[in-house]
Amino acid sequence: MTKLLPQGSDLDFPLNIPEGFRIAVFADLKKVGAPRVLAFDPGGVLLASIPSAGKIVALPDKNEDGIADALVEVIGGLDRPHGIDFAGDKIFIAETDKVVRYDYDPSNIKLQNPRTLFSLPGGGRHFTRTIKVFEDKLFVSVGSSCDVCVEEDFRRATILISNLDGSNFRVFAKGLRNTVFFVLDGEGKIWGNEMGRDFLGDNLPPDEINLIEEGKDYGWPWCYGKKIRDSKFQGGGNLNYCDQTQGSFYDYPAHVAPLGLTFIDSPLFPEEVQGDILSSFHGSWNSSSPVGYKIVKLNIEGGQVEEVEDFITGWIKGKQVLGRPVDLIFDKDGVLFISDDKANLVYILTK
């Protein structure tokens, strides 16, 4: 690992990165708020959601020097906007209580003609809503309203699906306590990071990465990990219920809080790691010793996780939290962008 101070900001801590790479600050958003979801518009301009400020901002880099030229407010006055994605000249924005589609003009980064496609259950313990366009379908993740409970609203703790016009809205997969981020691989499979419940101690339950399939039940609130029954939850349910659910693809350590994930498909990375997964660990809030606060690489071989290794560390020093990585996204050239909602930065990782 090579330590490099990020460029272009007053950040006073180093990040540990693999040798041969360089990490820098692409955009400093301290005056705006905490960046979460990242998405490139059809013109290649990076957008970031700022739920705490009710805004979506654009970060153009016209001279391509690896530092954002300006911060452009795309839209404001929203209710905790989180998810952003595009389909042609349409932009989809997921607020906490609805999904809205706008016409989008990349030449001037302007929105118009809003149309609410469907409502969502707003707020709750998990209020972020992430949206993805996969082929001709719209996918939205909605977290649980609680730590562990039986939900009254069928839309909670799910990934939902609809057509791009909002029609045929339904549950795609359920039993997902809080799958904040999910991605599509090269074979058309959906992978999602899942945050487990709290208050079972430092080592339980595991956080998870799941291979998410239509019609499957991933167990929450009764089950976690590899179909393990939550013996502390007395919410009813068949004792054999977990046998009928879908177990995790891989169990992360408890409380690391996995968020963004992406498959490596970049000429900047060596051939042997192409297809591996990078995953952000946002970091714990209730462990006796802090865990997470880093980005890891999952080596996938033969449909299994063979090894997990640290990819970027340095966001925690002792018990002092300096940053919390969130989303991960590659641009068309294979450059990696990372949002951080503690330091309020967007990083850029290049060679």
TrEMBL record:
SUPFAM superfamilies: Soluble quinoprotein glucose dehydrogenase
Signal peptide: none
Limits of the Pyrroloquinoline quinone-dependent pyranose dehydrogenase beta-propeller domain: 18-351
Top-level taxonomic group: Bacteria
Pfam families documented for this protein: TrAA12 (PF22807)
Protein name, as recorded: Pyrroloquinoline quinone-dependent pyranose dehydrogenase beta-propeller domain-containing protein
Species name: Candidatus Woesebacteria bacterium RIFCSPLOWO2_01_FULL_39_14
